[in-house]
């Protein structure tokens, strides 16, 4: 299909596998439902669960041929009969509040999506920044407000070079916390400190619990946010103070999230809580979701929060973008631009 002289395309995969299974094919969009909006996409945010979904390692299995994508920014091209909040030509962001696919899929030049997943884009952000902002920032805000972080708290963040990790550093510092950020390698410490972390620990080179005890004068962290799992999780638990909380939001050590398991010495959890969190416990609660959106606009305007982009790929290099997503040690978000 061609719209305004532009040939519509999208990314599909028809079998499980690595990045090579992704195909760019012509797109025929159905007519808009009354509550839908058609968006001409400018940039797409890539997430690790996209790669997991492609391999059937996510909590939802694909149905072939499967579209992809839940996060993007673009311009309204058309609106359904019941949509009155958005007009043609407005810059909008497709929020990742449905997973793993929003509407007809955001890995595309155009997408039909429910108006309920849209928000007006933040003033002053580039398309790449906007596409890389919301998933990471919403997850970070969710964790830092689930057990509300306040000035003087000590927050421990694992894999802090990830997109969520870079958002966690900035938001936690904006809330007044002291931030201990980790990466596997010591050569990432300078980047973490430049972003705002107070301390950086290389978990492949140092004992995490020992270093946290030294940094905190034996008290431990108030809150830990972990996305690594595996053997490191017990070290994270041992780094948290009595009465503290450990929030886990991923398992990078397990290629299949459905196979991920918790192996923590039971007594290590004495007077501590360990909880798996997901984005939707924020986005499904209207008051919390509204507070997050208001905070983001204010924080961006103040310069307290800025999306960190690892690398930007063009749409026709989607396979290479996914290779980078899976193989690289990222610092921030991978984004694909369209057109």
Automatic annotation (TrEMBL):
Residues 17-336 form the Enoyl reductase (ER) domain. The keyword Phosphoprotein does not apply. GO terms for molecular function: NADPH binding; oxidoreductase activity, acting on NAD(P)H. Signal peptide: none annotated. The keyword Magnesium does not apply. Keywords: NADP, Oxidoreductase. InterPro entries: ADH-like_C, ADH-like_N, ER, GroES-like_sf, NAD(P)-bd_dom_sf. This is Enoyl reductase (ER) domain-containing protein. It comes from Paenirhodobacter populi. The lineage of its organism: Bacteria, Pseudomonadati, Pseudomonadota, Alphaproteobacteria, Rhodobacterales.
């Amino acid at each position: 299909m061609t719209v305004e002289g532009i040939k519509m395309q999208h990314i599909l995969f028809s079998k499980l596998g690595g990045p090579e299974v992704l195909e760019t094919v012509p797109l025929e969009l159905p007519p808009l439902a009354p509550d839908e909006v058609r968006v001409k996409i400018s940039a797409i945010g890539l997430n690790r669960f996209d790669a997991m979904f492609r391999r059937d390692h996510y909590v939802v299995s694909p149905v072939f041929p499967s579209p992809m994508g839940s996060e993007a920014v673009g311009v309204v091209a058309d609106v359904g009969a019941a949509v009155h909040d958005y007009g043609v030509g407005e810059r909008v962001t497709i929020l990742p509040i449905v997973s793993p696919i929003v509407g007809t899929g955001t890995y595309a030049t155009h997408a039909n999506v429910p108006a309920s997943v849209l928000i007006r884009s933040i003033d002053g952000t580039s398309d790449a920044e906007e596409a890389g902002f919301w998933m990471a920032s919403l997850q970070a805000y969710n964790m830092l407000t689930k057990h509300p972080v306040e000035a003087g708290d000590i927050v421990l963040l694992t894999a802090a070079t990830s997109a969520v990790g870079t958002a966690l550093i900035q938001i936690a510092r904006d809330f007044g916390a002291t931030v201990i950020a980790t990466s596997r390698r010591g050569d990432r410490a300078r980047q973490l400190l430049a972003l705002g972390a107070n301390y950086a620990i290389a978990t492949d080179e140092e004992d995490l619990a020992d270093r946290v005890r030294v940094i905190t004068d034996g008290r431990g962290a108030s809150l830990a946010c972990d996305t690594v799992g595996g053997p490191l999780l017990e070290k994270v638990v041992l780094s948290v103070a009595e009465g503290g909380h450990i929030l886990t939001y991923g398992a990078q050590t397990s290629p299949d999230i459905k196979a991920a398991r918790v192996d923590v010495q039971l007594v290590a959890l004495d007077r501590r809580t360990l909880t798996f969190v997901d984005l939707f416990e924020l986005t499904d609660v209207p008051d919390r979701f509204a507070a997050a959106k208001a905070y983001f606009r204010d924080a961006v305007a103040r310069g307290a929060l800025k999306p960190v982009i690892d690398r930007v790929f063009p749409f026709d290099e989607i396979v290479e973008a996914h290779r980078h997503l899976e193989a690289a040690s990222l610092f921030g978000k991978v984004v694909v631009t369209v057109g």
